[in-house]
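Slack export, channel: ligand-projects

TW: morning all. Re-posting the request from yesterday since it got buried. We need the structure predicted with the small molecule present, not the apo form. The ligand is zinc ion; the SMILES is in the block with the sequence. No rush, but it would help planning for next week.
GE: picking it up
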Amino acid sequence: MSTHNEITIEDVQRFHGHVCPGLVLGYRMATAAMTALGCTRSGDEELTAIVENDACGVDALQLVTGCTMGKGNLFFKDYGKMIFTVMKRNTGEAVRVAPSREQDARRTKSTMSPEDRQKMIQWLLDSPEKEVLTIQKIAMEPQPYAKIRTSIECTQCYELVMESRIRVHAGKYVCIPCAEILERQPRSGS
Ligand SMILES: [Zn+2]
Ligand SMILES: [Zn+2]
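GE: finished. pasting the full token output, ligand included:
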């Protein structure tokens, strides 16, 4: 199978720490998205991606597309679905990539024997794109660049917190973990 932007399945395996069906599927999905968009790896922020689970395949997506959690051009929606949406930020041109029904049918068993796992990995690597994936071109609203937000010091632990995540408890700025501790404590005078 072809490599994409010099990111190979071996690179992805090295990054992820092991090879598994989810990783290989993610690699196929991510490379297919890049090809469909006619893109090269996102050096900065020209691509954004939305993932709908936080499983193995997301590591492949991060390496192949350059859309990463740390750069702020990867968005996680906790839907429990293996779907990647990759978008060109400036045009809104996007693709939604999902596993094919055939892929899903082959993966119905939650526990596979080591032989079945190996067969699945090989099938995912060798099969034509159409058998493994479905790709839909969609149009999305161009998205804003990651904001550099100011940080506020938590009045309990004195650690800095992104402005958008700070909470107010009894009139004081607190981080989420400190707020959770405070909320568990019985209020004095009540
Ligand atoms: Zn894995
Ligand atoms: Zn705190």
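GE: first-pass observations. Residues 154, 156-157, 159, 174-175, 177-178 surround zinc ion (ligand 2) (CB under 6 Å). The beta strands are 47-51, 74-76, 84-88, 93-99, 133-139, 151-153, 160-162, 167-169, 172-174.
TW: perfect, thank you
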